Amino acid sequence: MPMASIDDLTPQEIGEIKYLLAHGELQHRIAARFDINAGRISEINTGKRFAHIPPAASANGATEH
Question: Superkingdom of the source (predicted)?
Answer without folding.
Answer: Bacteria
